[in-house]
Amino acid sequence: MNPLQLTGLQLLQAMCDGKIPPASISDTIPMRPFSVSEGQISFKVKADQRHLNPLGGVHGGFAATVLDSVTGCAVHSMLEAGVGYGTIDLNIKMCRPIPQNVELLATGNVINLSKNLGISEGKIVDENGKIYAYASATCMIIRK
């Protein structure tokens, strides 16, 4: 399966189905996509002892990386085969500390997609819907 020949939605669905491996960043930040549709994606995420700051809390970079991933993947889910993207702006609001060793849900949704830009939002919540972090992102669409 050649990823460059798949639409963004096909590629992400293949990841959700386990037909292709997730991006290698998921080895560092445990996150896995489990649901995708056009303009929307959901990941399961869990911070562990590798993600702690010097004070023992989960580093803010964990949430930033997860939110960059879900907002970018939401945009990617709407792109044709061979079209890429890159984050050019990521604005994050940390609402409360990310807990360690607790599975959370990260979601991304496209707000607007034009020829050159994709705008999306993302959030990290627990099983009760309590929000831990929120982001908005702008992605540049890269057409070859």
Automatic annotation (TrEMBL):
Query: What's its EC?
Result: 3.1.2.-
Q: Tell me if Hydrolase is a UniProt keyword of this record.
A: yes
Query: Where does the Thioesterase domain lie?
Result: 56-130
Keyword annotations for this protein? Answer: Hydrolase
One matching Pfam family: 4HBT
Q: Which GO terms describe its molecular function?
A: fatty acyl-CoA hydrolase activity
Q: What's the domain of life for this entry? A: Bacteria
Q: Does the keyword Hydrolase apply?
A: yes
Kindly give the InterPro entries that the UniProt entry links to this protein.
ACOT13 (IPR039298), HotDog_dom_sf (IPR029069), PAAI_dom (IPR003736), Thioestr_dom (IPR006683)
Q: Which family does it belong to?
A: Belongs to the thioesterase PaaI family.
Task: Return the protein name.
Answer: PaaI family thioesterase
Lineage, please?
A: Bacteria, Pseudomonadati, Pseudomonadota, Gammaproteobacteria, Moraxellales
